[in-house]
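Repro case for the chain-ordering regression, as requested:
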Amino acid sequence: MTRYLLRRLLELVPTALVIILASFALVRLAPGSPFSSEKEIPPEIRRQLEAKYGFDRPLPEQFARYVGNLLRGDLGLSTKYPQRTVNEIIAAGFPVTLSLAAVALVWSLLVGITAGIIGAVRQNTAWDHAAMTTALVGISVPSFVLGPLLVLVVSLRLHLLPPAGWGDWRHLILPGLTLGTIYAGSIARLTRGGMLEVIRSDYIRTARAKGLTERLIIWRHMLRGGLLPVISYLGPAIASMLTGSVVVEKIFNVPGIGPYFVDAAFNRDYFLVMGIVLLYAFFLLLLNLVVDVLYGLLDPRIDYS
Amino acid sequence: MTRADHSQATGTLSAPQLVAGTSLWQDAWRRLRKNAMAVASGLIILLVGLACLVGPLVLHAVWGYDAQAQDLAYGPQPPSWQHPFGTDFYGRDLLVRVLVGGRVSLSVGLLAAIVAATIGTIYGAVASYAGGMVDSLMMRTVDILYALPYMFLVIILVTILGKSLLLLFLALGAVGWLLTARVVRGQVMSLKEQDFVLAARSVGTPGRAVVFRHLIPNTLGPVIVTFTLTVPSMILQEAFLSFLGLGVQPPSPSLGSLINDGANQMLVFWWTLVFPGGVMTLLLFALNFLGDGVRDALDPRMRT
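-- result from build under test --
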């Protein structure tokens, strides 16, 4: 196990380098520059600005310097917000986005797994059809439709929760539900499918023969099989929650990282774009590693040696 | 198998001249037709598609409704017989705008999914057929791309390429082929060991022909399944971008930008959110349901 982990961690190094190089190339080879805005900047000021950020150097040198800074944890300066470093912007926004994604994840797991269990245990009954149709509806309602509708009904008509903004836990609920519902649908379908795979297997029959209660069989044995596809879905799901929160942050006016990214991509804010892309990419790489390890812990048939 | 089934089966055995072979596709088509919800979804998609195609023309010819011409004096009107979806802030008939927006969504979804399926199929087949170093290098690349934040890549591509419709679906398709590539590679891995491939190679078929004539056609089933589920996800992503103001640009409507407008005015003019949002949801629901039906029909083992 330790060897496996070490090997996977070592494999991350070339992958990370390729990602850094690819995103650097993508961002830097794009036409336009951070200083080509509506206002015309006098050439000498522009030269000074370019010198300040090092854009006057040859690209390979800039890349080397960027990687060097990256190793020291320095993501560079923002060109759009000259007063702030990329580190500061991320430190302010990313925890907000993360907490939204966390609420969405908990919500989607709770609802999805419950609906999946109902569907599997009551396979081909009205319960099953109701659960699975609801799941498909959940998958089909885009967050940018669900979010405004929730605001309209819950906040503006019923006055139960604040419609937008950021502050205490009440601001987390609606955005979290909006972000998580689509994944709840997928998780419900995966849980049901996974449980139906194992429901007729020998170890379940053995458990029944031992005289375990149905409740214990469902929770201890079937769910374990049912969760395997869910676990492998979690990596891409969390990734897409983090990027998908761009829309939710816009709807609910939440100060996460999403709006900065869209802005930065538009304004060719090189370091900010790269900082956010790399942050997400590394987060996802680590997440996939965690998912693989979890998978092995849940399924004893997988051998890592 | 019940007794009746059994006697029927032996009956057909004793009269072999009556047995017509059913191909995989006939079999799948029969299964799909038996799935009432999938058939209903297919009809809904056809209806919405048809309405998007000819609806704006009819509305324009008969009532003179235009998707772009503004009438500020008329302003936003609630739904009525004259305007079933109401009118928007600029006095434009919302039904026309939703239909034109649906046109954009459907065409972007289809085209982007075709781009994704084409790239993914060829990539996956070539990687797997080549095998060895080439395969692992190509699939490591897919893994790396998988690790990149997908939507962010599309956003960067859109800001680089400019906001044209053509480039939009190219950007979506260019990033969306990864799943197809993995599915096709898995299929080809097992196919290429089979005897018909050996036979083809032993008569001197060049590698390119083996891939395109023998391997890819045999992966069509899973590719179609992936394709039908890629279409709604592409439609969703186009709307996502348009909602953020990165997709189709005003005054051209798109379901995403209509929903964005509606969300900004929903407190006063609820219909500007409800109708575009409802049509979008209905369309995605039907596409997902049909996709599920196609999957169950083509591969009953994958049924969950």
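Ordering looks correct now. Residues 214-251 of chain A form the longest helix (38 residues).
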